[in-house]
Amino acid sequence: MACNLNTVFLPHRISACGREPVSSKTQGFCLPSSPADGGASLAWSALSHDSVLATSGSLHLSTTITRKSPTQTLIVTEERKSTTAGKFGRYGGKFVPETLMLCLSQLEAELKVVLHDEEFQAELATALKDYVGRETPLYLAQRITNHYKNSMGEGPEIYLKREDLNHCGAHKMNNAIAQAMLAKRIGRKSIVAATGAGQHGVATAAACAKLALECTIYMGRMDMERQSSNVTFMNLLGAEVRSVDGSFKDATSEAIRHWVNNLDSSYHLAGAPVGPHPCPAMVREFQSVIGKETRKQAMEKWGGKPDVLVACVGSGSNALGLFHEFVRDEDVRLIGVEAAGVGLESGKHSATLATGEVGVYQGAMSYLLQDEEGQIIGPHSVAVGLEYPGVSPELSFLKDIGRAEFYTVTDQEAIDAYRRVSQLEGIIPAMEASHAIAFLEKLCPTLPDGARVVVSCSGRGDKDAEMVLEHI
């Protein structure tokens, strides 16, 4: 079934009073204006930051909330909407042509079944334990903790959630194995996916090998050069890796082009919580094991919750995986760290939430990197996995209501953190995770003694070692 990609991926800039097409010359479908048709209601407005948590841009611990606040009420309401219309406030939705609506609706229905199917959940639990290697440790990084103590020996305790110890070396396997199982359950024999840093590609290839599924991975040509070891692993695992001119966003477009031409036999295995519903919610659900384990492990280690959670943000899969369990716990700060590249003022960055504007891209509404005419701006980061011009609709919503905070870290700061953790803890983090770790330089001096900080170490960094040494 052929489909003009312009009708699927047409970016739209959102004005104060409605949607404006990128250009009168651009071909594509007319975006629906009714939420029932998959559109986004622009009448929705978030609570002001002052009326919820004064967290965005602040580096002070939040006050514990002992009763249901307006933020909690709003979050509960939007969670219900996310399971039906795929909406998080005004974000998300299904901005796709009719040819894809049936396929997405069928996927949504099957997802609702498996999330409550005891047999599927038991099989997934076994796979996560015996194949993926969960649960991953919540590791007290003692030397990093000591590094951030002040002259009086006071400072926060730093814990790393060791997703780098998963099979294939990243959090991506949590979602890949679950979706591959779902694809096989609905009778699909061929899997197609796109990857940036290669971690999702490797995880998908491994899951397909285990489940006897054909696997095709699309990857940007430059990303293949920068992450050549992961390309080797994907080939070794039996996947066909196809090169695409451009970066991850272009690979994603090609992967979905492949899918829409083979809807009856193939399954698009999304690794990022972006795109049309139910993709964002599905990826979030399958990654939420990270936060669920963190809550359990924190209770076992110190009898309470973390004070602060920190995760890098590209499209948002590892951040949502850690954050989602604690969204209603307003005494737990949620901090996402984006890639500032060579500086926000340079324009060479991937800081979508820090500098982007609301628009529609690749099937959903969220914050985007776009110019004044609504054209997508190419992202940049030393961490390939953070190079994406959009972001999760759910994170866009959490930003607007002030529930989560978002900051940025430059390429050089991330490289410095990569070396620091390697030399202090003997742990080599992925360059993506190094962005989250780098933010500790700014965060730790503001925290009280004994505050417990959990940082998502989303992947291992052997793939980045050569690049880091070149920079040094």
TrEMBL record:
Keyword DNA-binding: no
Domain Tryptophan synthase beta chain-like PALP residue range list: 134-459
Pfam families associated with the record: PALP
Enzyme's top EC category: lyase
Co-factor requirement: pyridoxal 5'-phosphate
EC number of this enzyme: 4.2.1.20
Catalytic activity: (1S,2R)-1-C-(indol-3-yl)glycerol 3-phosphate + L-serine = D-glyceraldehyde 3-phosphate + L-tryptophan + H2O
Pathway, per record: Amino-acid biosynthesis; L-tryptophan biosynthesis; L-tryptophan from chorismate: step 5/5
CDD domains documented for this protein: Trp-synth_B (cd06446)
Superkingdom: Eukaryota
GO molecular function term, any single one: tryptophan synthase activity
Keywords: Amino-acid biosynthesis, Aromatic amino acid biosynthesis, Lyase, Pyridoxal phosphate, Tryptophan biosynthesis
GO cellular component: cytoplasm
Protein name (Swiss-Prot/TrEMBL): Tryptophan synthase
